[in-house]
Specification:
12 strands; five-stranded mixed sheet; five-stranded antiparallel sheet; Heat Shock Protein 90; alpha+beta; elongated; 9 helices
Length: about 450
């Protein structure tokens, strides 16, 4: 729906250009355009009127659109068609004074359309207000060209004053910017020097770290090689001692006195403990050296849990400790059956050793695409600050004494390394007096 025009007028002679300029400024002021925009619109109208004047009379229509963004539109039409390309080129610079300018070449003539959006704070243009503007424009008496020239001079003076003020502000800002730039350059040079010094220090630190890392790797390799060699060399004589002790107590050997039999049993017990320690050292050395390669297969956890239940039942002989291996919540897992059994056996053995009463329980459940094996006990518990240290070789929690058997301090470190080899992780949650929960998390697929 087309809005009712505010005003219509016709441009016939050169003097009418001054009238168009005055009317344009009056309309712009009435609808709420700012002072500078009033001048821009009036100037655009006078320039377009001057160009169109040579082709006969020109009809000018002022319209305000209130739907959407309020916009003042001006259409300047003359009856001669075919002039659009030439006029568009002539009015290219004038188009910068308004928001949009279009030159159309219709069948009835050439039309130049201009538009200027009203500012956000402009008064609301209600129908009553529009009628008031129309009435006021109808009563408008155009001034003389001399009056319009005086108005233009005043606008020019105002524009020059504004430009001068902007120039002074620009000079002040340039001076401030120059001063800021000097400060920035000084700071940049200082930071560059500090960064260069820091980089030299970092390079030196990296060189030292690489040297220390190489030394640490060499020491770790030497330690693993030493443990492997010593363990291997000790296994044979220790096994021989155990065998000789068994021969001495055999029924086919000479009868021993009670004291001799007690001493031989002590020797065999000590040799058995030493063999356990040697085997643990050898396994740990293999794991640290990366010599353990898992053999992947589909592991039936129900069968594996049954084997663990039967193997460890002889260790759970105290009636005050309930040993439970639950039915697995995950039926099958792709892993190395031997290494997985070794990790769980170490965890269960450790729990039975340090649980005086209560329970030791093994279970497995599916969690976020992984399998979580949980060994929970009601033993002595571990303080929070020592929970990572129990995974160090030969470390035992101060004050904790195994209820049964002897601990070497190698079972948990070996279990964590095997967990890493299997692609998982081993963690512990514990509190003194509340027992411990060891959780082995492994991927369901590998």
């Amino acid at each position: 729906m087309t809005a009712e025009p505010l005003m219509r007028m016709r441009l016939r002679v050169e003097q009418d250009i001054f009238v168009v300029r005055q009317i344009g400024r009056e309309v712009a002021q009435a609808v709420g355009l700012e002072s500078q925009d009033q001048t821009r619109l009036a100037t655009a109208l006078s320039e377009v009127g001057r160009v169109l004047l040579g082709g006969g009379h020109t009809d000018i229509t002022f319209t305000v659109e209130t739907i959407g963004v309020p916009t003042l539109r001006v259409a300047m039409a003359r009856p001669e068609p075919g002039e659009a390309p030439r006029l568009a080129e002539q009015l290219q610079q004038v188009g910068r004074l308004v928001d949009t300018m279009e030159v159309d070449d219709g069948g009835t003539g050439t039309v130049v359309r201009m538009a200027r959006r009203l500012p956000i704070g402009a008064p609301l243009l209600t129908p009553d207000r529009m009628d008031e503007i129309r009435a006021g424009l109808a009563r408008h008496v155009p001034g003389t060209p001399l009056d319009e020239l005086a108005v233009q001079n005043q606008q020019l003076i105002g524009a020059l004053d504004e430009v001068r003020a902007q120039r002074d502000d620009l000079a002040r800002l340039n001076a401030e910017l120059e001063e800021t730039n000097r400060g920035v350059m000084a700071l940049y040079n200082q930071l560059s020097q500090e960064l260069e010094d820091t980089n030299r220090g970092v390079v030196a630190l990296y060189a030292e770290l690489e040297e220390k890392s190489a030394q640490l790797a060499a020491a770790s390799e030497a330690k693993s090689r030493f443990l492997a060699n010593v363990s291997h060399e000790l296994r044979a004589p220790v096994t021989a001692i155990i065998g000789l002790g068994r021969l001495l107590t055999d029924s086919g050997s000479d009868e021993l006195t009670a004291e001799q039999r007690r001493q031989v049993d002590l020797i065999r017990g000590s040799a058995t403990d030493l063999l356990t320690l040697v085997n643990g050292l050898l396994d740990l050395a293999k794991a640290e050296a990366g010599r353990i390669e898992p053999t992947w297969s589909e592991v039936d956890l129900k069968v594996l849990f049954g084997q663990l239940r039967g193997t460890l039942r002889p260790l759970a002989t105290r009636p005050e400790v309930e040993f439970t291996v639950e039915e697995p919540g995950v039926p099958v897992l792709r892993s190395d059956e031997v290494l997985l059994a070794q990790v769980l056996r170490n965890l269960l053995t450790n729990a039975l050793k340090f649980t005086e009463s209560g329970s030791v329980r093994l279970s497995v459940r599916r969690t976020d695409g992984d399998a979580e094996f949980v060994v929970a006990d009601t033993g002595f518990g571990i303080p929070a600050e020592l929970q990572e240290r129990i995974f160090e070789e030969f470390y035992q929690v101060p004050g904790s004494m195994p209820v049964s058997g002897k601990g070497t301090g190698l079972g948990l470190p070996y279990a964590r390394r095997l967990a890493g080899i299997l692609g998982g992780a081993l963690r512990v949650d514990s509190a003194p007096g509340k027992g411990s929960t060891f959780t082995l998390r492994l991927p369901l697929t590998s």
